[in-house]
Amino acid sequence: MREDVNTISLPWSLECSACGATRSADGLPGVCICGQPLLVRYGAALPAPALKEPLRQRPWTMWRYREWLPLADGEAPVTLGEGGTPLLSVPRLAAKHGFRDLRVKEEGSNPTGSFKARGLAAAVTRAAYGGAQSLVVPTAGNAGVALAAYATRAGLRARVYAPASTPPLILAQIRGFGAELVCVDGHIGDCGKAARAYATETGAVDVSTLREPYRIEGKKTLGLELAEQLDWTLPDAIVYPTGGGTGLIGMWKAFAELRQAGWIPAAARPRMYSVQAAGCAPVVRAFDAGADACAPWPDPATIAAGLRVPAPLGDRLMLRALREGGGGGAVAVTDAQLQAAARDLQLLEGIDACPEGGAALAGAIELKARGALKPDDRVVVFNTGAGWLYRA
Ligand SMILES: *Cc1c(COP(=O)(O)O)cnc(C)c1O
């Protein structure tokens, strides 16, 4: 089976997000030769809006959108049932903070406890098809858990580099799913260097954020799902806790493709807001400075592990997404603010928010105080993972 699938040309192409160079999707693609991320282009293959109706009958996992995803004809994805997460209204929180329509996309209910499942399901599916034997990832935590589980699901080996300061339960989950875990005395940037060295040495496939083109495709389903759950409309504003940027860039790509394929009006451009921690806010700083790339943040420090990304490879794409949305922005919140907001999600609404999800809500509150979010805006904040993974 493996031998013949590998010789079939895949029906999408890859385009560099920076220099525009294109290449075929065959093999195990990494970044462009210019060093910047490759993005999947489907060309005329995006599905027509007539698919909305039959879509209703499909199971609620991210693979209900298979026509939007990089799958070969008839290919079965590597899956644990990721996606199909609830979009919850949160009336008590909305009343407390003066929002008319506030909702939480609850990603903690994914397999492995975070939205990282979506990206890794897609990336592992493609790597397995491309003939990979072993995979490697640097992680702030949740990507490591997801890779460990999906690699096991595909029968492949996984190696994970995580900061020693990663919450202990997350490290236990990475080991629990059978990955080889290396704890690094440093931040995710240091883990990235170690992972790349390991990949070069052993031939393991590096599935770091944006170092291969398919995690973004899995993350795109956040946007597709949100649109479908709102009956093919989009909210006025999306508030998203940002580290490496896959969620933000994935949704931005989803909305662009939905417009291109005529599934939503050409004018449907929600304002996208990135929330970062005050102790690691390279995107906020670059956005405020009007820059088109981030300067590395010297000493990243926050309890929100997923936001501890001092030099994201997707910086240019994130900044583009924030500016191309109808006037979004970026905001930093302190650890005290994000912890208080995570507690509110838990105590007022019963949502087991992770610190990053707390950051998203804290960001929405801050943006409202600044007048960037209006009481009548339809606002969606993302709880990107399960809170229990962070407890001692
Ligand atoms: C990884 C992570 C983030 C940040 O991810 P992006 O790549 O910026 O989308 C946010 N929250 C949690 C829980 C994470 O694991």
Fill in the keyword field for this structure:
392 residues, alpha/beta, Rossmann fold, 6-stranded mixed β-sheet, 13 helices, 37% helix, disordered N terminus, binds pyridoxal-5'-phosphate
Task: Describe this entry's structure for a reader.
The chain is α/β, with parallel strands linked by helices. The protein has 2 domains: 87-114 and 213-390, Rossmann fold, CATH 3.40.50; 116-206, Rossmann fold. Helices cover 37% and strands 16% of the residues. The chain has 13 helices and 13 strands. It has helices at residues 2-5, 52-55, 91-97, 116-129, 142-154, 168-176, 188-202, 214-229, 246-260, 282-289, 315-324, 335-349, 355-369; strands at 13-16, 22-24, 38-41, 87-89, 101-106, 134-138, 157-163, 180-184, 205-206, 237-241, 271-277, 329-333, 378-383. The strands form 3 sheets. A 6-stranded mixed sheet has the order 4-5-13-10-11-12, sandwiched between helices. Strands 8-7-6-9 form a 4-stranded parallel sheet, sandwiched between helices. Strands 2-1-3 form a 3-stranded antiparallel sheet. Helix 6 (168-176) links the parallel strand 7 and strand 8. The longest helix is centred in the middle third of the chain and has 16 residues, at 214-229. The protein is globular. The chain starts with a helix and ends in a 9-residue tail after the last strand. 57% of the residues are buried. The protein binds pyridoxal-5'-phosphate (PLP).
